[in-house]
Design a protein that fits this description.
Elements (H helix, E strand, L loop, with lengths): L8 H16 L11 H4 L5 E4 L5 E5 L1 H5 L5 H9 L8 H4 L2 H44 L1
Antiparallel strand pairs: 1-2
């Protein structure tokens, strides 16, 4: 059973938001999901076939660009309640949105990496000051 399967849209958003915060941290997060919204901002998505083999892998934007790919087939299956695929999907709007989101996420990752690097440098400087202070005693 998927943790978000019985949640209303607002609760699912809150869970996904919390997951995003965890995924931005300096750790590895493995998410297994059926709902595409759960994995949309993942650094890497691995799509498994019905036989359990890797059918395709990449970022959301990369996978969204492959019209006949396994990922897009799953996307269409989730939208199957619609009589046909919406025009914005055919026109590439969803792909453009995915690319924009991927760029924004990359910028956030870079900012976070820069912040962590600054913190590391500050800790090293503090350690050097401590060592010098101890040496001068």
């Amino acid at each position: 059973m998927i943790a978000t399967s019985a949640l209303d849209a607002n609760s699912e958003y809150l869970v996904n938001d919390a997951l995003q915060k965890v995924m931005r941290s300096d750790s590895t997060t493995l998410t297994i999901a059926h709902r595409l919204a759960t994995i949309r901002r993942a650094d890497r998505i691995i799509v498994l076939s019905s036989e359990g083999e890797v059918a395709e892998q990449g970022t959301y934007a990369q996978l969204s660009k492959r019209p006949d790919g396994a990922f897009n087939k799953l996307m269409r299956m989730q939208m199957e309640g619609l009589a046909e695929i919406p025009q914005e999907c055919k026109d590439g709007v969803i792909y453009e949105e995915a690319e924009m989101e991927e760029k924004e996420e990359q910028e956030l990752r870079e900012e976070e990496e820069a912040r962590l690097e600054r913190e590391r440098e500050e800790r090293e400087k503090e350690e050097q000051v401590k060592v010098k202070a101890e040496q001068s005693l």
